[in-house]
Q: What sequence folds into this?
């Protein structure tokens, strides 16, 4: 390997890490306008780096650009897993399944749209909205019945969402002829198929894909979260495998010929821009931080710390496990949608459970319960291992990429030996740091005899 | 404490409570009635079923049979979080703090059921969130100040010495704003000096927060010193009830609990 390339890569990785650190620091500024300005500037810096080209020199070549988007998508997935595993303490191996669900769901929407079929958007959109309403409705109705067995509740939710899905399919069938008239054909795109409209459709598809993953995780998590943590891990692993098998057979046992089963879905429009990737990543970071430092977040963390004590503090443990799981899967779904529209090609091979260990490794690598750690580890992992090593090891011949699977575990082993709490432990940077609470002046206190110094 | 006709109304009434673990009857026909404002002790040798009674009252275990009434309402079989919200706070025999959270957060978690803002308010950080969050932080700090813990509010709970952990746990239980406080062996592992402080603390919180307290204790010194009524259990059954003086003279208690020849213990 050329030394120049190696050097350049190291510069890039340290540049990215410095960038992330600076962004988080500036976002932590007390002034609202500084915060907003820092986000805009951070966006502009990378946007400029992506578009500036002087002669043959580019800051980010196509390969780096791909890594950047992949790192953004990975950050979202890992943030979600950190919420589930790092903050809520539920060992989940299913995150990759929700990532895949989000990727395929969003890809199907935009793929169909650019090919003159609006059913993808209508069915998914109506489906997730109706499904959400059904879940909310049944949830508030069930709250009046104490001690409803969890499987009965699950059956109700399941039947409800099935009805919602059926209605969504009917809605898609009814509305398709009216909307698709505006889409035009491949040769003569209609007014609804301009790049701008496609971006809007993509935007909707990303959000719907996230909500879709969240709703599926609700239905799956409801019965499964009542298991203990280890059993929960195995059940989620099963979920990831089921999702993968469905992907492989999406054109045979599922009615989605455009997904082409095991051959992979080609022709997904490459609509991901730095703007969407950055926007959703920042949104997820903000949502995570606001969630963790609210009363709800403290309740979620208390479940990890001690379930019995959390119950004694008046916290509905089952509820908060489910909430963390659903929000985490929502992030994974969004990450999947961003990934699908950057890569343009979805293969079930990307979503096998073996690859699904990556987010888990990254979250442990960055530090369980550290949001900054998740971000840093996602970027570092993608750029270092996916980028640098793929090229460096490429010199070793065609089997070289397999060496990554030796290198990953060894890296992880070393980290666990040297720094078991992860790269950042529980350290947070700037914006993600817990708001400081000053010691207050004493208002009233127990009699002096109760003080630690008193007595005998 | 409470005046008028409320005075004799029991705040907690346990009727014929039983708990069966497989072939073992851990608690058998347990009855207990506690009036408002009383300080009641539940004692007995190891394995007598005291903590099982606590766990059934707080909903961690479901009773095999029997009834628990709190302020006249049947709370048997409710979820633990519902029982806490109704007004029963508790501490644990082996301290159960949230070890990796700060002392302040430990107490703030107890406010969660009364946080007064929703998930969405928290995500948007709107006025409702900031206002309520400041209020409950101040309330939590007041609690810490009462227990002289305000200086260490940002320490992780796991780094505190034992005695302070106990105080944090009591502060946290009080922050759930209970009417009835269950203390499970609060003096476990304390030296005589700390026990004196603890006894004063228990008296203080009862008067300050207008509480009813039921405590499990091993140390006869604590029980005899502060409890107004004592119930003695052995092998899951009540073997004696009465004032500390009556209990200390009860032959059956001395034999079952203290062993023969230990009559001079109190």
A:
């Amino acid at each position: 390997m050329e030394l120049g390339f190696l050097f350049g890569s190291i510069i890039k990785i340290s540049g990215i890490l410095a960038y992330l650190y600076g962004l988080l620091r500036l976002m932590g500024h007390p002034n609202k306008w500084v915060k907003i300005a820092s986000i805009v500037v951070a966006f502009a810096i990378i946007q400029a780096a992506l578009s500036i080209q002087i002669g043959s020199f580019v800051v980010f070549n196509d390969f780096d650009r791909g890594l950047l988007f992949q790192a953004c998508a990975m950050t979202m997935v890992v943030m979600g897993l950190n919420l589930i595993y790092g903050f809520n303490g539920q060992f989940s191996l299913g995150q990759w399944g929700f990532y895949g669900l989000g990727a395929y769901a969003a890809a199907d929407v935009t793929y169909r749209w650019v090919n003159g079929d609006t059913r993808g958007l209508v069915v998914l959109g109506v489906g997730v909205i109706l499904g959400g309403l059904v879940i909310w409705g049944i949830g508030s109705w069930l709250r009046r019945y104490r001690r409803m067995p969890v499987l009965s509740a699950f059956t109700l939710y399941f039947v409800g969402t099935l009805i919602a899905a059926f209605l969504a399919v009917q809605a898609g069938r009814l509305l398709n002829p009216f909307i698709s008239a505006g889409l035009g054909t491949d040769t003569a795109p209609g007014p609804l198929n301009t790049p701008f409209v496609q971006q809007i459709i993509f935007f909707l598809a990303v959000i719907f894909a996230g909500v879709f993953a969240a709703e599926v995780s609700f239905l799956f998590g409801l019965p499964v979260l009542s298991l203990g943590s280890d059993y929960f891990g195995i059940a989620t692993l099963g979920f990831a495998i089921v999702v993968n098998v469905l992907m492989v057979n999406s054109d045979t046992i599922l009615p989605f010929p455009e997904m082409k089963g095991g051959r992979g879905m080609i022709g997904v429009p490459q609509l991901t821009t730095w703007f969407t990737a950055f926007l959703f990543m920042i949104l997820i970071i903000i949502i995570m931080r606001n969630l963790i430092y609210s009363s709800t977040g403290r309740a979620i963390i208390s479940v990890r710390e001690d379930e019995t004590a959390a119950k004694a503090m008046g916290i509905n443990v089952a509820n908060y496990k489910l909430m963390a799981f659903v929000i985490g899967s929502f992030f994974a779904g969004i990450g999947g949608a961003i990934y699908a529209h950057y890569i343009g090609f979805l293969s079930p091979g990307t979503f096998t459970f073996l690859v699904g260990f990556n987010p888990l490794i990254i979250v442990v690598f960055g530090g369980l319960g550290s949001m900054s750690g998740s971000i840093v580890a996602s970027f570092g992992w993608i750029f270092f291992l996916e980028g640098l090593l793929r090229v460096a090891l490429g010199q070793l011949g065609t089997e070289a990429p397999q060496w990554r699977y030796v290198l990953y575990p060894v890296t992880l082993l070393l980290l666990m030996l040297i720094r078991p709490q992860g790269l950042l432990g529980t350290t947070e940077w700037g914006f993600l740091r817990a708001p400081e609470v000053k010691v207050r002046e004493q208002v009233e206190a127990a009699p002096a005899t109760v003080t630690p110094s008193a007595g005998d | 404490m409470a005046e008028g006709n409320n005075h004799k109304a029991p705040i907690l009434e346990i009727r014929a409570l039983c708990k069966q673990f497989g072939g073992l009857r851990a608690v058998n026909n347990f009855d207990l009635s506690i009036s408002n404002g009383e300080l009641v002790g539940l004692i007995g040798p190891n394995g007598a079923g005291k903590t099982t009674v606590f766990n059934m009252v707080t909903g961690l275990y479901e009773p095999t049979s029997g009834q628990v009434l709190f302020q006249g309402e049947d709370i048997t079989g409710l979820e633990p979080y519902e029982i806490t919200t109704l007004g029963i706070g508790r501490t644990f025999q082996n301290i159960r703090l949230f070890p990796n959270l700060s002392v302040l957060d430990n107490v703030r978690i107890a406010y969660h059921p009364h946080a007064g803002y929703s998930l969405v308010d928290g995500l948007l950080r709107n006025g409702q969130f900031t206002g309520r969050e400041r209020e409950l932080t101040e309330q939590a700090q007041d609690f810490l100040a009462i227990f002289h813990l305000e200086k260490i509010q940002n320490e992780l709970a796991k780094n505190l010495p034992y005695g302070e952990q106990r105080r944090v746990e009591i502060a946290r239980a009080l922050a759930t704003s209970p009417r009835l406080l269950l203390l499970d062996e609060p003096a476990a592992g304390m030296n005589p000096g700390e026990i004196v402080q603890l006894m004063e603390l228990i008296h203080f919180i009862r008067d300050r927060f207008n509480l009813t307290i039921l405590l499990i204790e091993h140390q006869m010194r604590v029980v005899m010193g502060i409890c107004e009524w004592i119930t003695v259990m052995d092998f899951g059954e009540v073997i004696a009830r009465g004032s500390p003086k009556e209990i200390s003279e009860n032959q059956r208690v001395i034999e079952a609990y203290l062993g023969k020849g230990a009559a001079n213990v109190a």
